[in-house]
Design brief:
This protein is about 45% helix and about 20% strand. With about 800 residues, the protein is of the alpha+beta class. The chain folds into five domains: about 10-160, Beta-Lactamase, CATH 3.30.450; about 180-285, Beta-Lactamase (2-Layer Sandwich), CATH 3.30.450.20; about 305-435, GAF domain (Beta-Lactamase, 2-Layer Sandwich); about 495-665, Heat Shock Protein 90, CATH 3.30.565; about 690-824, 3-Layer(aba) Sandwich (Rossmann fold), CATH 3.40.50. The strands form six sheets. It has a six-stranded antiparallel beta sheet with strand order 3-2-1-6-5-4. The protein is flat and about 145 Å long.
Length: about 800
């Protein structure tokens, strides 16, 4: 087994012959049992030499924990430490080191190098007290420490000299090796222009041996006269000026004709004069070729940078464009000019149904006739790339053809790919902008139509009220009331359509799906629309299969879908026209078609007919234009039933056909009766009047609703605020409270909570009906949380109100009554 390597400081101290004698003198003269020379660093305490007469146990190479030694403190303060008796020394009697190592007397002297750096200590310890604090002992330790430091310095100087000699020899070998093996030519001229040294490479280039070459001039070695004379002049110049000379020259040698770059430098002697001229020559033939290629490469890179600058500029301009045409035009123009072709063509696919495709070409003067005519010539094959959208879809293509010079390269394809990527992103942005602009236009049209449609029924309502105020004959009054009811119903339908669309679009409509006969929904829609169709002078025909058509659906919503299709057909069909509804089965689907002989649908409108606010040109429609949301509702509700709706028309003036497709139930068409409509509580079935409290901050609403309730035979009280309603409820003890939510001061929710907390059981358990213009699902949940039994949305239909009041007369603990109450 190899022994552990000796620490270099231990070896250095061990090589000093005087150290063992010094330690022996220290122990004999002081009587100390242990003496040592220690190397002390900021991390270690290492014993380098020791004399142990007391069995302390430390040998050269042994270590102590640095922070447990007093030498560590000496290294920090730099002064000697002398202790005759630890127990009597106030500075060290409580110190941890004497107790740890079992000594009572201690002396330590720092060992320093010539430069003042700290090496370690000369120290001694003994378990018994000693007389150390005297000038002789301290002086002896200081002398020995200085001797050890001086010996270390002498070792360093000896080692330095040896290293210098070794380094000098090493460098000499390196220089000789380099000069002998370098690919450069190395040589030395004497003052008479003769070669006194030539390395191996130069000798091989000459094709000569050392003996054949040394001592000769350039001319004698076969240099051409002009070449030899040039070097003679250069050598004389270096001698005269003591400045170097550089040059480049061709030379025909054993390596063929090559180009060499050389330098002559003066060799200055000890007296300051030039004693020789040294030179090196390098073959730069390959470098010169590389330099030429580099120049060509730089030229290509400059061209590429110019192209990239133009591409970046085009990219910025395309990113700012909001038109697909503009992006395509700039793409073809820049791609053609940057890559250098006679023709560039971009074809952009239609962004959606009804949107036009775009084809743009950029042509050079070679195709001036086609360019001026606005046509694209038949072009030879070239470079083509797709324009890829962010979702991976292909938006179109860009194609280059007929390059100015040569064929298309990978660099051309890379440039076109970058332009195509930016163009694709810009096209998507432009298409989005165009869609948003179209939606904004539709929104403006919708708001204008909404204002028009709301004003239309308001005019006859206002006129009717003025007429009724004049007390007309009963027949005229009845006719006026019918007109007002019809116009009011029209307004309610408009608002209901808007609310339905908002709820469906936001996913807040909960369909009550059940097994139902689709014929029942069709019949209900026909009966609902028949009066309006007949009033418009149109013919309505329908054909239903004899067997039930079973689907899973919401009867109310599917009846609404069919009604909207019939209403749309009536709206665009003139008097004398025909509307036909047909229900049939096709495989596993039910198909309901509504066909009319009306205005038809223009080809540009047909793909967007089911989008919100899309309408035909009103110049071709009847006066009842609508809001353009009925068909959007149809599509939304059809899709919620896992179905679909489509439209077909041969164009304006040729009528239209709408087809609703719904999946049949698994058993298909089965025999049996259609789902019966929900039972209604018949109006007038009351056995006794109710006490009804009406609370609303609108006096007109209070008066009209109170009057209606009184005509129905109920006892009515009213209040215009929540503060007035609470004491009135305590006196009146109502069976039912019709309560507005948006009251000033105390809201309807607060009033409901106060009524539910009333001491009178009749008041606390009365039926609370929220009567409000807010009808979203969140509004209904909030009303139920406040204690309301029912939530009705204004305006309330008379029949609906009668049903609610009829249900309230059912026994409170009747399950049927409770179910009907929450369905109202």
């Amino acid at each position: 087994m190899p022994s552990d390597p000796v620490h270099p400081d231990v070896a250095a101290i061990g090589s000093i012959e005087a150290v063992p004698h010094i330690l022996q003198v220290v122990t004999l003269s002081t009587g100390m049992g242990f003496a040592a020379v220690a190397r002390v660093t900021d991390r270690q305490w290492i014993c380098c030499a020791a004399r142990d007469n007391i069995g302390f146990g430390l040998v050269p190479g042994g270590e102590l924990e640095l922070l447990t030694t007093l030498c560590h403190e000496i290294r920090q303060c730099g002064d000697a430490v002398v202790i005759d008796d630890v127990r009597e020394d106030p500075l060290y009697r409580d110190h941890h080191t004497p107790a740890k190592y079992g000594f009572r007397s201690y002396i330590s002297m720092p060992i320093r190098r010539r430069d003042g750096s700290f090496f370690g200590t000369l120290c001694a310890i003994d378990p018994a007290p000693a007389r150390l604090k005297n000038e002789a002992t301290i002086g002896m330790f200081r002398l020995f420490a200085e001797m050890i430091g001086a010996q270390l310095d002498a070792q360093d100087r000896t080692a330095d000299l040896a290293r210098v000699r070794e380094e000098s020899d090493r460098r000499k070998r390196i220089y000789e090796t380099i000069l002998a093996n370098t690919p450069d030519l190395a040589y030395v001229f004497d003052l008479d222009h003769r070669f006194v040294y030539a390395n191996e490479v130069l000798l091989r280039m000459w094709g000569r041996t050392w003996d054949d070459a040394i001592g000769k001039t350039c001319l004698e070695l076969g240099y051409e006269p002009w070449h030899a004379e040039m070097h003679d002049r250069e050598i004389e110049h270096v001698k005269a000026t003591r400045e170097s000379v550089r040059g480049q020259v061709p030379f025909e040698g054993a390596f063929g004709r090559r180009i060499y770059d050389y330098i002559f430098v003066p060799v200055i002697g000890a007296d300051g004069t030039v004693e020789a001229v040294a030179g090196t020559t390098r073959d730069v033939t390959d470098f010169k070729l590389y330099e030429e290629r580099l120049g060509e490469h730089l030229e290509r890179e400059q061209l590429r940078a110019s192209v990239m600058t133009r591409v970046a500029s085009a990219s910025r301009r395309m990113n700012a464009m909001l038109s697909v045409d503009s992006v395509a035009t700039l793409l073809t123009e820049e791609a053609r000019q940057v890559i250098g072709t006679h023709a560039a063509v971009a074809s952009i696919a239609a962004a959606g149904e009804g949107a036009p495709a775009v084809t743009t070409a950029s042509l050079s003067d070679k195709y001036a006739d086609r360019r001026d005519a606005g046509t694209v010539p038949h072009l030879p094959a070239g470079l083509a790339l797709p324009l890829m959208g962010s979702g991976g879809e292909t938006l179109g293509t860009v194609r280059l053809s007929d390059k100015y010079e040569g064929g298309f390269t990978e660099a051309d394809e890379a440039v076109l790919a970058q332009l195509a990527a930016v163009a694709a992103a810009s096209i998507e942005t432009a298409q989005l902008y165009e869609r948003l602009r179209e939606q904004d236009r539709r929104k403006d049209e919708f708001l204008a139509v909404l204002a028009h449609e709301l004003r239309n029924p308001l005019a006859p309502l206002r006129t009717g009220l003025s007429l009724l105020n004049r007390r007309p004959a009963q027949a005229m009054a009845d006719r006026t009331m019918q007109i007002m009811e019809r116009q009011l119903a029209h307004m309610v339908r408009l608002v209901d359509d808007l609310m339905d669309l908002a709820r469906i679009t936001t996913g807040k409509v909960q369909l009550r799906l059940e097994r139902m006969d689709l014929r029942a929904a069709a019949e209900a829609a026909v009966e609902s629309c028949r009066p309006a169709v007949e009033a418009a002078g149109q013919e309505l025909a329908f054909a239903l299969p004899p067997e039930p058509v079973w689907v899973r659906g919401d009867p109310v919503r599917l009846s609404q879908v069919v009604g909207n299709l019939l209403g749309n057909a009536s709206k665009y069909t003139p008097a004398g026209g025909r509307i036909a509804l047909e229900l049939r089965t096709q495989g596993a689907a039910a198909q309901l078609t509504v066909t009319d002989t009306g205005a038809g649908i223009a080809p540009d409108i047909l793909p967007r007919i089911f989008e919100m606010f899309v309408q035909e040109d009103r110049s071709r429609t009847q006066s009842q234009g609508g809001l353009g949301i009925g068909l959007a509702l149809v599509r939304q509700l059809a899709e919620r039933h896992d179905g679909a709706v489509s439209a077909a028309s041969r164009g304006a003036g040729h009528g239209s056909t709408f087809t609703l497709t719904l999946p049949l139930l698994a058993q298909g068409i089965v025999a049996g009766a259609a789902v019966a409509p929900r039972d209604r509580v018949a109006a007038g079935a009351r056995r006794a009047p109710l006490r009804v409290l009406v609370v609303d901050d609108n006096p007109d609403a209070v008066d009209t609703l109170s009057g209606l309730l009184k005509t129905l035979g109920h006892e009515v009280r009213s209040a215009l605020s929540g503060e007035d309603a609470l004491p009135l409820a305590g006196e009146f003890r109502p069976h039912c409270v019709l309560l507005d939510i948006g009251l000033p001061g105390m809201s309807g929710y607060d009033v409901a909570r106060r009524l539910r907390a009333a001491d009178d059981p009749q008041v606390a358990t009365c039926k609370l009906v929220a009567l409000t213009g807010w009808g979203a699902a969140a509004d209904r949940r909030r009303a139920a949380h406040a204690g309301f039994d029912l939530h009705l949305t204004k305006p309330v239909d008379v029949v609906q109100l009668e049903e609610v009041l009829g249900q309230l007369e059912a026994p409170a603990d009747s399950p049927a009554a409770a179910a009907q109450l929450h369905q109202a």
